[in-house]
Write a structure and sequence with these properties.
Length: about 400
Amino acid sequence: MDPMPSQIAWLDASSEEQRRMRDIIQMFTDREARDELGIGTIRDALSDILFPGTSTLHTRARYLLFIPWIYTRAANSRHPVREAEALERRLVTAFADADDSDGLLGSRVGTALKTLPSQIYWAALGTYGIRRDASATRESILLADEKEIIESDDPISGPRTWHGSIPAHPEGFPAAVPSGFTLTREEAEWLRDRMVTAAPGTLLEYFIHHPPEGGFSFPWQDPAAQGVTGPLRLQLDHARAFSAVMHGAQLLYNLMLAERYEAAGFEGHEDLTDQYEELIAQWAQQLPTEVPLGQWDVHALIALANTQRTRPVPDATQLFVHNWTDLVRQHFARQDPISTLTGASAARDLITRREKQTKGQYGRLHSDKRLSSWGGASGAARLTFRWSYVQRILEDLHNGLATPAEALRA
């Protein structure tokens, strides 16, 4: 199917209107972690089911190798914890002359970066079995490695914290990384094997074996996804339906904020009411072509999400999703203009109550003080289940697999 709400064309719009539309779409590119209506519990569960080990903070696949290489080296120092941190920061400067540096963590602040790559990728390293003890902390691993090196009768064997077959680091690392984030064939094959072993039967494994074409906003849009069948197809269809249906609630929430913002006389985001009304009209036109509203089973969606969670999806979240879906179904069954849904007190009261449940005193619908600092979009982006970040990791992997085996390591 054609890409939808995030790619909107105003065929008859003036250049000024087109500029405004581009501005609002840009606001929609905020991190998917933004969750204004408390649907993140379901979103994250589905994301973990489809793409285990991934995160919206992940930028490039080679970090999954950089970190164990750095930690193994740091374990040999007198102060391993301090040395590991120093080496991670030094890695930023090592990329100054790298051929492939897009996605470098700390590219703007340099060695002053607050969140180290190891913090961001630590969970993934455990999920994929790259570090053997999935529950170990960064500090405990370094201290355990140090103790093992001191007590070992075989200094050649080295620490056993990390997977035993991890590829050797390139010459000069971490002081120099000329090839940047470009994976060698050996590295890509090794990472592929770790991920496939750790995530069998998932959409992540499927896309590892069936490379996506790229350039699509959602995983179900990519032509490679057409071959998805069985349980994977059911999971993907649930994710698509949840994303499509709940996007209407997200847009209505932002429409209500825009109306209050303009009514309060605040300046900086004028005409957003018209913009959101247009986006809602686009949503209403597209939704029936994406989701079989009469057949989609919300109970099955919740049950699927619960398989990934240690605790069930909160009752209030379940009720909100059920109630919104019921309102949408009733509206489309009557075939009324979309304004009868977005203007209905039932829909608006539902959104208002949900904001109060999730944000309490920090909500904007009843606080002019907080509304005055509104940026023009609050969780308005449609859920993608980390797809843009997953695509980047998959692209790294497939590019590495396509590299000639005899290519020089660097």
